[in-house]
Amino acid sequence: MSLLTTFDLDTIVRGAFSVKDSFVLPDGEAEYKVVYDEKAKGAFERLYDTLRPKGYVPHLTGSRDDCVLLVRKAPTEKGSSRFPVILGLLTLAAVVAHGWLQYIVYQQLLPERLPVLMGVAYVVVLILVIGLHEVVHRRSGSRGGTRAPIPYFLPGIPVFTPLPSFGTVLVHREPPVNRDALFRTGLLGPIVAIVLCILFYAIGVLTAATVSMEQVQSVRAALPNIQLTTPNPSIIESLIVSFISLIGGGPQTTSGSQLISPIAAAADTGLILTFFNLLPATQLDGGQLCGSILGYRGLRITTYLSIVALLVLDTPNYWITAVIVLVIAGRPTSLSTLDEVSEASRAKKILFLVALLLALASVPIPQNIANLRLVAG
């Protein structure tokens, strides 16, 4: 890659910004005092797209009244760690192990349903939800030569934990261009996951099998952590079931019977993982959304509020996630962007509220709230 001359670099910068003053730095780098106006945010994005493939990274700092543009050479790439790969393989192994548990359940309850196929269906659906979630992250996080963020999967322990994973921590190797880019990286992955979960949950309900509650209880007594049915489905799941019932689709249940489906179970797990990822806590997807809107201090506050909320919920799975978030919060990292002056757009602020509502709609209704609803009813 051939580096730009000082003249070429200066020409590119002055073509994007109105320059008040400029300073030549060592090694062909430069500093500019520029005018920040209503077009500056888009101008910086275009400048980044021009300079990054040429080996330079612009950095906008200061304030709207005293705005400084630094242009430096892009940092050299460091050797990649194998730790994210190991965590990914452990998560994959946990998903396969939970698929094996589905095979055992169907072998006992419904051997005519091809138990191996049921176990494979669970694994494939959950891998698609988790995998496409991360693929979208990498695609949305890589721009103009930017190195994609690294996902650190949080695997569960088969048999001991009901979930094969507890979400994903996303680590940026390079700062995003601006707060909008940071927001976009954190939002698109969970949105894709939710859409897939809705689709697969509907398919699962339409193809579910009917078993007696006595059979379900006997399986749960032998395998207490097996994901069969959701006693208190999430708002999204309840809406899907209500819609399918409204149009007269899916198998019908009678008193004392229950629908089970490996596809619906995998989609249910995917929704819970999406809820974890959308928590407004540091280094989670929701943390990126929150950090881009509320800034670092706001993110610290919402991180500890998320921990309190997880501890209040009455499912032990959430307690484990609360501990994980607490450990991550103990090693805070600043969500820096290359453009430190511009703010997130108004549309992103609205979408942040939508993301929080989607998170609440994805999580199973806690047992204590469900009990209150039954009492009120």
- What is the number of strand segments? 8
Percentage of residues in strands: 5-15%
Structural class: alpha+beta
Mean pLDDT: 84
Shape designation? elongated
Strand order of the largest sheet: 1-2-4-3
Largest sheet: 4 strands, antiparallel
Q: In which range does the helix fraction lie? A: 55-70%
Radius of gyration over alpha carbons? 24 Å
Distance between the termini: 69 Å
Secondary-structure topology with pairs:
Layout: H1 6-16, E1 19-24, E2 30-34, H2 40-51, E3 56-62, E4 67-73, H3 83-109, H4 115-141, E5 150-155, E6 165-171, H5 179-206, E7 209-212, H6 213-222, H7 235-246, E8 257-260, H8 262-277, H9 285-312, H10 316-329, H11 346-362, H12 367-376
Antiparallel strand pairs: 1-2, 2-4, 3-4, 5-6, 7-8
Short characterization:
With 377 residues, the protein is of the alpha+beta class. The protein has helices at 6-16, 40-51, 83-109, 115-141, 179-206, 213-222, 235-246, 262-277, 285-312, 316-329, 346-362, 367-376, and strands spanning 19-24, 30-34, 56-62, 67-73, 150-155, 165-171, 209-212, 257-260.
Key words describing this protein structure:
377 residues; alpha+beta; Hypothetical Protein Ta0175, Chain: A, domain 2; 2 domains; four-stranded antiparallel beta sheet; two-stranded antiparallel sheet; 12 helices
